[in-house]
Amino acid sequence: QGRIVICVQTERHAFMKVQRRLFDAHSHIGALGSFPYYGAKVPVNPTVIEYPDTASMVKHMDDHGVERAMIIPNYGIPDSTLSFKYNPLVIDSLEHNDRFVGAIWVSPVLKDRPLNQEAIKHAGDKGVKALKATCLLGGTYKISDWDEETKALWEELIDCCEANNLIFVLHTSPGGTSDISNLLTFIREYGKRIRI
Q: Rounded to an integer, what distance in angstroms lies between the CA atom of residue 148 and that of residue 152?
């Protein structure tokens, strides 16, 4: 059981199915397109496969035998506001397809607070199970670096998770503002109130 039973090579990639129930716990939806990362002279798209819409995500799931998926707005281009435009795609996907649960994109960047306030209005919508944030695009998990305004922004998001029984999915990485060591004090402070 669990062995790969079908593997068909195509021009783009191999499609594989497994002989057991398969759930995708972390899939990004929305096509970012290309960007000149790290000052590159030519814009590149580092994403191997992107899902611009619900239908393409469902097709991918069917091709690979994925029964259900957690969908999260795509991010990565260094513009903290860009991923908010994928929240309606997530909400629409959740509304029309019971194979999905999802996360709403929020940002720890102060200028994005009005976008957060709009986004968390959907915290109680069908299928919404989490909020998703990263400090790769600005902000920090390190509580000792917060001013009062930053603390208020984070508290708004924490309160939303607590009130709606949502998981707070926080991206970490080695080094920088998303470094996992910066998240430890955050977890100590808020981990008894919400699931992180």
A: 6
SS3 at position 28: strand
- Spatial strand order in the sheet of 167-170: 23-29, 68-73, 100-105, 128-133, 167-170
Main-chain dihedrals φ then ψ at residue 165, nearest 5 degrees: 55, 45
pTM of the predicted model as reported, rounded to 2 decimal places: 0.86
pLDDT tens, N- to C-terminus, the chain (196 residues): 444 434 344 444 555 666 788 899 999 999 988 899 888 899 988 887 889 999 999 999 999 999 999 999 999 888 989 999 999 999 999 999 999 999 999 999 999 999 999 999 999 999 999 999 999 889 999 999 999 999 999 999 999 999 999 999 999 988 888 888 889 999 999 999 999 9
Please report, to the nearest 10 degrees, the dihedral formed by the alpha carbons of residues 178, 180, 186, 191 taken in order.
130
Determine the Cα angle at 71 with ends 45 and 79, to 5°.
45
- Cβ neighbours of 26 (radius 10 Å): 11
Q: Using CA atoms, how far apart are residues 146 and 58, in angstroms rounded to an integer?
A: 40
